[in-house]
Design goal:
Blueprint lengths: L1 E6 L6 H9 L5 H9 L6 E10 L2 E10 L2 E2 L3 E3 L11 E3 L8 E3 H11 L4 H22 L7 E3 H21 L3 E4 L2 E2 L1 E2 L1 E4 L2 E4 L3 H6 L5 E2 L5 E2 L3 H10 L2 E2 L6 E9 L9 E8 L5 E10 L4 H13 L4 E8 L5 E10 L3 H11 L6 E7 L3 E9 L2 E10 L2 E6 L1 H10 L4 H9 L1
Parallel strand pairs: 1-9, 5-6, 9-16, 10-14
Antiparallel strand pairs: 1-18, 2-3, 3-4, 7-8, 11-15, 12-13, 17-18, 19-21, 19-22, 20-21, 23-24, 24-25
Helix pairs in contact: 1-5, 3-4, 4-5, 4-7, 8-9, 10-11
Length: 407
């Protein structure tokens, strides 16, 4: 499995992620040239070598109309450069301010990017806008972004989204995020670290403060991690193929960088819960109704087995498979719709094939097909609802229709 591990031992910022990921490419300069040809208004990317604590990596500088935002961090758009900044609300200098709708217009109408990359960019911006909305107590529609900061942030977010699309990994594992400690200056006063928007984006994510004074993870960095992370945790067992270091500007006692590792991991599966119970006083119809409600509640699979219970009573063993995060909902559903008074739990590891939907165009009509692949196999299965409908419409048996489709 192609895996990307992002080490956030010194937090994360948009430009640092961009710099680190470019080091994983066979030709980083060609990618920077591609960025500069995108036509983000007024934006120029520059890539240069940087050394921190004896480690050589890459630093990315973004200028907008010759101006580098660098040491400013305009709080309502959640962007920065390498942990050396102050917070401002962007009302100075007479600059124009852009809404989320304006940003979407730039991304969708002016940047020649695949739709998936455009969708990723807007999803990341959506996380930032939602966080700023919570922090400032105003609707998302009223969040506006400073002109220089807007283009600067679009540049970094676009670069990372393009890099992730080009790397095309199967899994992104992100370490617990070092957010820094202390306080940071804002145009309206002093804010705690992590800044409110960053803290909101990183809710339910493992974070820590550490001893370094200053803001290490920014809203832009946090949103990029949140959007692309498959999971947060320790570095997996992997065969590393490439390593990249993205450097910030400021010097700390520790190397101010984001480190990324690209490699192969064994398909480790995912952990699921198996919940089971015995019942001997429910009708078949009642059991069927309960099974439907469990699927509605998010169960991955539900099935029954006949068992013999005490006093030779016939009963059923109900098995429910679910994700860990859905366990409480499933437990409540089992107790609500069955007569059991106790439920057992097992933790299982599940291995699944990758699945995608395709549409087959046939003389009889369009038929959806589920394609499952992985572990050296590929399987195709036509959706029963489509097959059944088209077979009825053409007065064919299912076997006759599938024979025509295969031909």
């Amino acid at each position: 499995m192609k895996t990307l591990y992002i080490d956030c031992g010194m937090g994360a910022a948009g430009d640092m992620l961009t710099a680190a990921l470019t080091e994983l490419l066979p030709d980083p300069e060609a990618f920077v040239d591609r960025l500069n040809r995108l036509g983000i208004p007024g934006v120029v990317f520059q890539r240069e070598k940087s050394v921190k604590c004896g480690i050589t990596g890459t630093h990315i500088t973004v200028t907008v109309n010759g101006e580098e935002e660098g040491q400013e961090h305009r709080h309502e758009h959640g962007h920065d450069h390498g942990h050396e900044h102050e917070h401002h609300h962007g009302h100075e200098h007479g600059h124009h301010h852009s809404s989320l709708h304006d940003i979407e217009h730039i991304v969708r109408e002016h940047l020649a990017l695949p739709k998936k990359v455009q969708d990723d960019i807007m999803a990341v911006y959506g996380l930032i806008a939602e966080a700023e909305s919570q922090a400032h107590g105003v609707p998302v529609s009223e969040i506006h972004f400073h002109e220089v900061g807007t283009m600067d942030a679009i540049a970094d977010i676009t670069a990372v989204c393009m890099l992730m699309d080009q790397l095309s990994v199967d899994e992104v594992v992100v370490s617990p995020v070092h957010v820094g400690s202390g306080q940071v200056k804002c145009a309206h006063g002093i804010l705690p670290v992590p800044a409110p928007a960053t803290a909101y984006i990183l809710r339910d994510v493992p974070i820590y403060g550490g001893s370094i004074r200053g803001e290490l993870c920014t809203p832009t960095g946090a949103a990029l991690l949140r959007h692309f992370a498959t999971r947060f945790g320790a570095m997996p067992i992997m065969r590393t193929k490439a390593i990249g270091y993205g450097m910030g500007k400021k010097d700390f006692e520790a190397a101010n960088c984001v480190r990324v590792m690209l490699g192969e991991t064994e398909a480790s599966g995912d952990e699921i819960c198996e919940l089971s119970c015995n019942v001997d006083d429910m009708t078949g119809e009642a059991v069927g109704f309960a099974m439907d409600r469990l699927f509605d509640a998010g169960a991955l699979d539900v099935y029954t087995m006949p068992i013999g219970m005490k006093k030779s009573r016939p009963g059923i063993l109900l098995h429910v498979m679910c994700r860990k995060e859905d366990k409480e909902t499933i437990l409540r559903t089992v107790f609500k719709h069955t007569t059991t008074i106790g439920i057992r739990e097992n933790r299982l590891r599940r291995y699944v094939l990758d699945r995608r939907m395709e549409t087959a165009e046939t003389a009889c009509g369009s038929i959806r097909c589920k394609v499952s692949s992985g572990y050296g196999v590929e399987r195709r299965k036509y959706e029963y609802e489509d097959v059944s409908r088209i077979a009825k419409e053409n007065n064919l048996s299912i076997e006759e229709l599938l024979s025509k489709v295969e031909k």
